[in-house]
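anyone seen this seq b4? input:
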Amino acid sequence: MRKPKTQFGIEVREFTARTGLTVRAVASGAGVSYATLMDTSVGRSAGHELIPKVRKFMAEYTDSYDKPATG
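predicted toks r here
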C-alpha cells in the first residue's frame, strides 16, 4: 500500500516536474540524504532540519533560472 504524500512531498514533486530535476538531484543539491527526503515526503520523518534546506535549494534554483540574461 502506498503512503500518501505530505504537502512537502507534493511540493518537491511539483518542483521536479517543473524543472526536470530528479529527487536525487534535489537531495544532492540541498545537501541532504535522499532516503530522509523520501521519508519526509510521506510523513515518516519530521524533517524539521531537512525541509528548510530543500526549500532554500528549490528557491535558489528557481531564482537562478527566472532571471533574464544580461550582457
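The helical segments are 7-19, 23-30, 34-41, 50-66. Residues 16 and 23 are 7 Å apart (CA to CA). kinda curious what u guys think
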